[in-house]
Structures are given as C-alpha cells and as structure tokens.
Design goal:
Homotetramer. The protein is of the alpha/beta class. The protein has two domains: 233 residues, 3-Layer(aba) Sandwich (Aspartate Aminotransferase, domain 2), CATH 3.40.640; 86 residues, Alpha-Beta Complex (Aspartate Aminotransferase, domain 1), CATH 3.90.1150.10. The chain is 43% helix and 17% strand. It contains 14 helices and twelve strands. The strands form three sheets. It has a seven-stranded mixed beta sheet, sandwiched between helices. Strands 9-10-12 form a three-stranded antiparallel beta sheet. Helix 7 links the parallel strand 5 and strand 6. It starts with a strand and ends with a helix. Bound molecules: pyridoxal-5'-phosphate (PLP). The site of pyridoxal-5'-phosphate (PLP) has 11 residues, from helix 3.
C-alpha cells in the first residue's frame, strides 16, 4: 500500500521494533518503568521543559493539559480549526467542564490578535474565566512563525493567561523553520507532541511542562484511564523515533512539494505548490469525481482521503518513487 491518508499510518521499522523488544520495563503507575522515565527525561531536556509525561495519545495529552490549566468554569481560547476543539470529542467540555472559545483561523493558520484580545473575558460574574490560549503548530500543514508565537505570548503575559501548544507536528514546524524544537516550544507553558505520526513510533504522545504542572497532569492521566503499566516497550519506540526520525522530516516536506507540483500539472487538479509548507497537500478538484478516483487508486494499492479539498499526507512510508507510481496511476485512472 502507498498510503497518503495520514502520517498516523507509519509503521515501526525493524530497528525500532528491535529496540522496543529489548526495552527494560517496570510498572509505570509506580514510576518504575526505566524506559518511560528515560523517554520523559530525554524529551523534557530536548524540548526545554522541567518535566514530561508519556500519554496514550495526542488527544489524551491535550485533554489532561487543558484540564491541568483550566478548572470547572474556566475557558481556553483556540482556533476554530484547532484539533483540540473539533477532533477530540469535546473532551475538555465533556470531562473537564472547561469551555472552548474558538476564534476563526486566518488563512495562514494564525489567530488574529485583535480577535483573541476581544475574546478574553473581563472579570465579571457573567463570564467564564479565560485562563489559556491554545495554539497549534503546524496547523493543517501550515507553520506559525516564531515571531507570531512571541506576539501571542506577549499578549498572554499582559493578560495573565497561560499558553499551550498542540504540537502534534511541532517537529515538522521546527524542521521547516530551521530552528530547534526548543525554540518552537519556548513561548509555551505546556506542549503536547505526537510520537505516532511522522516520527514513526507506533503509539504515544508526550505532554511537557513545569514539574508542578506535570505532577497534576499525572493525576488527570490516571483519572482518564491513561496510567499504563509496562509501557516501556512503547516508550523505547518513541525514544528511537525522537533520536532517528526528526531530521528526515525534510524529505516528507520535499516529497509533499513534489507531489503538489506534479498534481498541479494534471488537468482538473487545483493546487498551488508554493503553499505547501510541510507534509500536507490539499487539492481542489474541478470536474473530477475524487471518490471514484479514490476507488480506482485503492484497487492499485494507493490510498488517499477524498473530499473537497482532498488531503494527501507524506511520511516515512512514502518515497519519491512511490509518488511517481501514484502520479502514473492517477493519469491512467483519469
Ligand atoms: C493527531 C493530532 C492530535 C491527536 O493525536 P491522537 O494521537 O490521534 O489522539 C492532536 N492534535 C493534532 C494537531 C493532531 O494532528
């Protein structure tokens, strides 16, 4: 299969599986798992935080992050397109009694600072208490600049708000910006990152923050059913991913750009390659039934998510040669 549906479909490599199979383990609920502890220390150091917590998913990392920052009757400001607003089952509201205050994202993925400022509630019994601004980087494949994040942080300081980053793909942002992951994370009180997407680990995410923050988050992780036992086998795969699969993300970005460029040359595909920043390509179609095309390509072992626009995601399971095979298959199918 050549699978463009998501970077979540990545498979652990033989080398990663070997490291996982040999990982020393213990009961992580007791804090006894050496591989989980090693991952958490390694990641905290790498991303520039005091502490880190290994979680079962990015959804759980965001949820317990939001529940640690915000109490019942508090709110977080986020993008209308934010994953932790749309795609996480409303967890913060459902489980945390925390209200989201979404703001329409601008075309570049940012939140207009004037709109953010207007959404911050005054201290008045009519209103929930605004506690947090949550950004996402990358968002739909788009990168928020360091300059922009610094401006949001300045506003947060001024209004005494905390800052959270949904950094499921923060490494893609760092690689694209040509800066360290620590530089991307420096503006935030907490960050979540996904290990199970482009980095290629089979399972897991991390939540990072101050020591006290992570202590509280650890309670919420237990409450939400995320206290895992011999999780070290998963943590070892995750650490392998952080050590080996970060710098290669540029290949995925180059491949996405190449895919967009070649698709733009096919009649009926509306895509601007110059707008592809990381590993996602969004394609509008004109007079092409993308659902029919998806069916035909699936018969040839090629998967993508049809829609308007259609999304194509590159990752470590897709080579330049796979893209050429796909382009030929598309032309044949059309
Ligand atoms: C995938 C994703 C998540 C959630 O990760 P899961 O591990 O699938 O729960 C959170 N935020 C963003 C931006 C994501 O892309």
């Amino acid at each position: 299969m050549i699978d463009f549906r998501s970077d979540t479909v990545t498979q652990p490599s033989a080398e990663m599986r070997k490291v996982m199979s040999q990982a020393p383990v213990g009961d992580d609920v007791y804090g006894d798992d050496p591989s989980v502890n090693a991952l958490q220390e390694y990641a905290a150091d790498l991303l520039g935080f005091d502490a880190a917590l290994f979680t079962s998913s990015g959804t759980q990392a965001n949820l317990i992050g939001l529940m640690t920052h915000c109490q019942r009757g508090d709110e977080y400001i986020c993008g209308q397109q934010a994953h932790n607003y749309i795609y996480e089952g409303g967890g913060a509201a459902v489980l945390g009694s925390v209200q989201a205050q979404p703001i329409e994202n601008s075309a570049d993925g940012t939140l207009d600072l004037t709109k953010v400022e207007r959404a911050i509630k005054a201290d008045d019994i009519h209103f929930v208490k605004t506690k947090l601004i949550s950004l996402e980087n990358t968002i739909n494949g788009k990168v928020l600049s360091l300059d922009y994040m610094a401006k949001v942080q300045a506003l947060a300081f001024e209004r005494n708000l905390r800052m959270h980053l949904d950094g499921a793909r923060a490494f893609n942002a760092a690689v694209k910006l040509g800066v360290s992951i620590e530089q991307v994370c420096q503006y935030f009180d907490s960050v979540s990152i996904c290990l199970s997407k482009g980095l290629g680990a089979p399972v897991g995410s991390l939540l990072l923050g101050s020591r006290g923050f992570i202590e509280t988050a650890k309670r919420w992780r237990k409450t939400t059913g995320g206290g895992m036992r011999q999780a070290g086998m998963l943590a070892a795969g995750a650490q392998y991913a952080l050590e080996h699969n970060v710098t290669r993300l540029t290949e995925d970005h180059d491949n996405a750009h190449y895919l967009a460029l070649k698709l733009s040359e096919i009649k009926g595909f509306d895509v601007d390659p110059s707008r592809v920043q990381t590993n996602m390509v969004f394609v509008k179609s004109i007079n092409i039934d993308m659902y029919k095309l998806a069916q035909r390509l699936q018969n040839k072992g090629i998967l993508f998510t049809p829609g308007q626009p259609t999304r194509w995601v590159t990752h470590l399971g897709i080579s330049r040669a796979d893209i050429d095979v796909t382009l030929t298959a598309i032309k044949e199918a059309l």
